[in-house]
TrEMBL record:
PANTHER family: BITESIZE, ISOFORM I, SYNAPTOTAGMIN LIKE 2
A molecular function GO annotation: neurexin family protein binding
One Gene Ontology biological process: exocytosis
Protein name: Synaptotagmin-like protein 2
Gene designation: Sytl2_0
Pfam families the UniProt entry points to: C2
SMART domains (alphabetical): C2 (SM00239)
Subcellular location: Cell membrane
GO cellular component: exocytic vesicle; plasma membrane
C-alpha cells in the first residue's frame, strides 16, 4: 500500500519497567520538559476598537542589496483606545503572507499619547524579488499596552504581484477592519489526506502483536503554502507526544517543487497499551526543506484534546473537533483503517 514504511516503539516506564531490545522508554517525570511540539508564532490581540484613520507609506525594492523596503511615514485620525485619557500609543507592524513565520514581523517604534503619530522609519526584509512577488504585505496599526494587551487599530493588505514598482512615492491608505478570515482564525495551510489504524495486543492471534500498534499512513497533502515561485520542497515529521526523543521521531522523504505532494508513507508505532490512546497524541507536521533551515508549513494533532496527558496539563493536547473525532473513530474500530482529510493548522 505504500512505498516506504517505518516502525518505532512507544513505551512508557509506568507501563513497562524493562523495555525489550529495540524499544525505548520515556520517564513520565520528564513530560513537563517536553519541547518537541511546535509552538505557535502568532500572538493574538486582546482588545480592539473600530478601525479608522489612514496610514502613509511607500514601497521599494533595492535590487543591489536584494532588500524589500517599507517606508512608514505617519498615521492620521487613529481610533482612541483609552477613552478616559483620550489616548492611544500606536505602532505599525508588518508581515509577509502567506507564511507569517518565515520572514517574521517588523515593527516601528511606539509613539505615545497621539492619534496622529509620525514615524519616518524604514522596515526591511532581505528577500529575493521573485519570492517577494508571490507574497502579500500585511501592514497593521496597533495600540501598545504595557501589559501586552495590545489593541488592533486597523490594517491594509497589498498583493505584491500586482504592485506598481515604479511607484516609490508616499501614498495614503485607509485602514480597514480585520478581515473575516483573521477574525475567525481561519488560516488555510493545506489539507492532509491520511489513514490510521489501531491494532490491540493479541488481536491477530496469541501474543500477536505482543503490544498494541498505531499505524499512520500519510498519503498526500493538498494546497501547501507556496514559498518560492518553483513551489515547495516538503516533508512530514511525526512524533507521538509526550515522547519527543529521537526514537519517537519519524519523517517522510522530501517531495520537491510540489504544492500537492504525494508521500504514500506508513509509520508503525508499537508498545501501545490501549489505555495509552487517551493520553498520547500523534503530531504530524509539514515542513519546507532548505539547506540552512526548515520552515514550518502546518500540522495536525491526533488525540482526545483534553489538555491532559497522564494527569499532567500540557499545551499540545489541543486537538480540534475534527482531529478528536478522527482519533475516537480509530479507538472504537480496532484493526480497521480510518480515512481522514484534515486541515493543516498553525499549532
Amino acid at each position: 500500500e505504500s512505498d516506504t514504511a517505518s516502525e518505532i516503539s512507544f513505551q512508557f516506564n509506568k507501563h513497562k519497567k524493562t523495555p525489550s531490545i529495540g524499544s525505548h522508554s520515556s520517564d513520565m517525570a520528564s513530560v513537563s520538559s517536553v519541547s518537541g511540539s511546535v509552538l505557535s508564532v502568532y500572538s493574538g490581540d486582546f482588545g480592539s476598537v473600530d478601525a479608522q484613520g489612514t496610514v502613509e507609506f511607500a514601497l521599494d525594492y533595492d535590487e543591489k542589496n536584494r532588500e524589500f523596503q517599507i517606508h512608514v511615514s505617519q498615521c492620521k485620525d487613529l481610533a482612541v483606545v483609552d477613552e478616559k485619557k483620550g489616548r492611544s500609543d500606536p505602532y505599525v507592524k508588518t508581515y509577509l503572507l502567506p507564511d507569517k513565520a518565515r520572514m517574521g514581523k517588523r515593527k516601528t517604534s511606539v509613539k505615545k499619547r497621539t492619534v496622529n503619530p509620525v514615524y519616518n522609519e524604514v522596515l526591511r526584509y532581505k528577500i529575493e524579488k521573485m519570492v517577494l512577488l508571490i507574497q502579500k504585505l500585511n501592514l497593521s496599526v496597533w495600540h501598545n499596552d504595557p501589559l501586552g494587551r495590545n489593541s488592533f487599530l486597523g490594517e491594509i493588505e497589498i498583493d505584491l504581484a500586482s504592485w506598481d514598482w515604479s511607484n516609490r512615492k508616499l501614498n495614503w491608505y485607509m485602514l480597514k477592519p480585520r478581515s473575516l478570515s483573521a477574525v475567525n482564525g481561519v488560516d488555510h495551510r493545506g489539507v492532509m489526506n491520511l489513514s490510521i489504524k489501531y491494532v490491540p495486543p493479541g488481536s491477530l492471534g496469541p501474543k500477536n502483536p505482543p503490544s498494541g500498534e498505531v499505524h499512520i499512513w500519510v498519503k498526500d497533502v493538498k494546497d501547501l503554502l507556496q514559498l518560492r515561485p518553483s513551489g515547495v520542497d516538503s516533508f512530514v515529521k511525526c512524533y507521538v507526544l509526550p515522547d519527543t526523543s529521537k526514537k519517537s521521531y519519524q519523517k517522510t522523504r522530501v517531495i520537491k517543487r510540489d504544492t500537492n505532494p504525494v508521500f504514500n508513507h506508513t509509520i508503525v508505532y508499537d508498545g501501545f497499551h490501549t489505555e495509552d490512546l487517551k493520553d498520547a497524541c500523534v503530531e504530524l507536521t509539514v515542513w519546507d526543506h532548505e539547506k540552512l533551515t526548515n520552515h514550518f508549513l502546518g500540522g495536525i494533532r491526533l488525540g482526545l484534546g483534553t489538555g491532559l496527558s497522564y494527569g499532567i496539563s500540557v499545551d499540545w493536547m489541543d486537538s480540534t473537533q475534527e482531529e478528536v473525532a478522527f482519533w475516537q473513530e480509530m479507538m472504537s474500530a480496532a484493526n480497521e483503517w480510518i480515512d481522514g482529510l484534515l486541515p493543516l493548522r498553525s499549532l
